[in-house]
Amino acid sequence: MKVIITGATGMVGKGVLLECLDHPEVTAVLVIGRNSLQMDHPKLKELIHKDFSEFESISEHLQGYDACYCCMGVSAAGLSEDQYHTFTYDYTLSLVNALYHLNREMSICYVSGEGTDSSESGRMMWARVKGKTENAILDMGFKQAYMFRPGIIIPLRGIKSGTKLYQFFYDYFMWAIKLFKRLRPKAVINTTQIGLAMINVSLRSFDKKILRPAEIIEASQA
User: Fold this and answer.
1) Which of 71, 82, 104, 185 has the most CB atoms around it within 10 Å of its CB?
2) Residue 204's CATH number
3) Structural domains of the chain, count
């Protein structure tokens, strides 16, 4: 299986990337990003692309792939709804539309978040926009499309969060996360589980289109 990953500089995307590079059934990985990962691996190819509002100019590099893992995202803090909509909905749909015209048999995995609003009409701005993005991908007509809604995530394999506030919490309050996981083991997942779950649903499918933490854990063990 050949896969495309976006957001590989982020915590979730980096976790997905590492699992793909290690997995025997993943033969090639194309990472699309604005900046280089500064990594070297025989499976890995990087494509530096500065303008995520369009992907037609690089469409020749997107052909022949079996799955795309959309892990790019930004925090809604400090952003207007229009700005967040551009980063979250517009950029994601720009890529997904380009991929659909190249290969609608692809599997698409999109990372949103626990609390995403499928009705698109709730009070939380980020949840509405994420819900709109999910709905658009699910309605597009791909052979397989899965929406990942992780809640609390534990970064493994030396991965750091690109968001300073989140990393501060990991550095000083990981004990609290681990305690919560003991109390509710299916409510907390890790970056390895997300990566394995994406690979498994792409290779073998899954009976649910929206995967919350319990389903992500289940899919990671398939």
Assistant:
1) 71
2) 3.40.50.720
3) 1
